[in-house]
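U., I forgot to send this yesterday:
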Amino acid sequence: MTKSTRNFILLFFIIIFILLYFLKKYNDIVQQNQIDILVSNNVEFVYNEISYYKKHALSLSILFSKNQKVIDGLKYNQPIKLKNELNTLLGSISKYTKLENTQIQVHTKDLKVFVRNWEDKDVGLDLSTFRKGLVRVQKTKQPYVSNELGKRFNIKAISPIFDNNTYIGSLEVIMDYVSLKKRLSMAGIDVIPLLNNKFLNIAKNYKNNKKLYDYVIIEKNYNQNLYSLLVNNKEVFLQDKFYYEIDDTIITFIRLGNIDDEAVGYLVASFKKTNQKYNYLPSYEYKDTMIHTMTTQSNSKQITKNIIIK
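Result:
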């Protein structure tokens, strides 16, 4: 083999090596961009789902606050009748939607608990000192929804109750993250909602819940695999990156703010590096029979038109 031939072969392999190197670099960039897009899309999807739940809770709160039986129950101090009516309304909700663990409470105009559909022990409790959302609705006389911190941290939608234009109290629809978690799971996204430990002096219902470093898990039924992943990779809590790649899993933190836009916790989301499709997810809407029943009870056709949420 001549020297020129050897040089040619050597040059050929060098060129091939360089081409393969840059091809790998290019593929790595493309793959990273695909992961970036996947994470952005999934985070946007989670934010949209939270927004849908807030809108749904607010719509129900407005609708129920217009219900004449609810108004009369508060006006004439009939807590038993009012509680029965609330449970009837929630029965209709659970029958025609996939939402779980929805609760309702009614407050007096001075922000004391009048009726809770799930318990009676806190009747008469003054909420004005730690429930900023209630204070806001009392002052503005306008509906409001937020992630609000109380004895629990969840979605709370509050609407004023009027009797002939006179403010007599408020109605609150409360939703936790159970239905949201199940819906996201259908899209291949697992989540664990966390609350910062420093708020346990307010959110007393979580004092005995499982802890995770500086946070408490606000649900007792949580994804064990995701929990183990977080325990074994403490560095993700530094949140110095938008997301973390652990083997074939992506982990990202979605901020949960309160009424003051203060970060009180996070929704930790995880999903595989494969793309998800959401077109099979169910939409939420009331059937015509439910609309007719609620419209009759509330005498509010305009609110009913706005209650359907896709």
